[in-house]
Amino acid sequence: MKALLVIDVQNGVVDLGDFKEELSYMESVIKDFQSKDLPVIFMRHFDDMEESPLFEGSEGSKLHSSLDQYASNVIDKRTPNSFYNTTLQKELEKLGVTHLFITGFNTEFCCMFTAITAFDKGYKVTFIEDATGTVNTEDTYEMKGLDIRDFVGTVLDWSEVIEVLDFEEYAEKYTSLGSS
């Protein structure tokens, strides 16, 4: 069975940039999964430091209003890895999930760590590159010209164990318009 992870779509992240396109792609994938009665699991990250925008209980830690209406299944986490010290694996096992689709924030942290761990745990993994986003830039990493999302997607794709698609490829391959 397939399942979708929507990682850290929270005010403290989304409000730091213009993510209209990424959120639109995430919403389309969510609706596609829900139309097929496939599980959609939201991950919510909490930080322990009060000054963090993701401090538990803060406005920043809440799911963003653009997608929160779809969040009937939410699992909390405190590290970039959605599996570490969470109930995610038990939930996936209970649902009989074998193929995990990754969307959300931040591409190079929580999304990438979760994708790699999911593969290590035996799941088939599809990373929908342009349905992820990051608040970081080329300046964050002092790497002129760096396209973080493309870089992460390329690295995961080169692994030859994680399927990396853009939204159009996902729609063609997996939605009701394409094959399942």
Automatic annotation (TrEMBL):
Domain of life: Bacteria
GO molecular function: hydrolase activity
Keyword Transferase: no
Isochorismatase-like domain location: 3-159
InterPro entries: Isochorismatase-like_dom, Isochorismatase-like_hydrls, Isochorismatase-like_sf
Keywords for the protein's UniProt record, in alphabetical order: Hydrolase
Assigned protein family: Belongs to the isochorismatase family.
Protein name per its UniProtKB record: Isochorismatase
Organism this protein belongs to: Halalkalibacillus sediminis
